[in-house]
Amino acid sequence: MESDLLFFACVIPSIMLYGVAKSGLGGSMSLISIPLMTVVMSLSQALAIILPILILSDIVAVYKFRKQFDPETVKLLVLGGFVGVVIGSLTYTYFSEELLKALIGVMGFLFTAHYFIFKTKKIIPLKKSFIKGGISSVLAGFSSFCAHAGGTPTSIYLLPLRLKKETYVGTRVVFFMFLNLIKLPFYVSLSLLDIESLKQSAIFFPASLLGIFVGYQILKKVEEKLFYNVIYTLILISSSTLIFNFLSKL
After folding, report:
1. Which of 27, 140, 161, 195 could be joined to 21 by an S-S link, Cβ 3.0–4.6 Å?
2. pTM of the shown model
3. pLDDT at 188
4. Of 143, 175, 151, which Cα lies nearest the Cα of 58?
């Protein structure tokens, strides 16, 4: 009984965080989901359970934001994301989860620290960049394949563009819908998915829907400036946590 309670206590909040991420709030907070799930299962099992849930959640989120995304940016991100997924599939067995998350943590920490140190009252949006967008999306595809953790690299490119909050969220969810669909055949080819993992995905999918609903309700009530400050703060906190966890195991 205790082991069952621990299992659900670790898995349900993890799935809910991914749902909240699909609404655009606290995307980088879902970085703690995989480590939390690996308390009660292997990394490969956690990845397998989450992917179908992400794809179904993507469909729900994309429907909500179907008219609020930047098509040009999505095309660039999907192209780089595809390259990152291919790289991830070829090198999956060579990277430990801890090292990958530590690298993502360093990236996110430097990015958000720079924002808080140098931000001014008047923030000038950066122009779109094929090079920056390409690099960020390749990293997003790679880290998403290996640990479902592509949110921070994506935010590093999207946040400085200062899109409207709905357009920012819509662009993210459309990109990740394509990215997760791209990952699916590679997961199958690596035998990460099986009937048992699909059953567990179906059981826990409602938790993701609840997370999407909660996040979407909050999003409607948050003003633009506060929205960006909250996202940057959540990335800073989660990135610092990843770095600390990695250093504590050395």
Report:
1. 27
2. 0.81
3. 92
4. 175
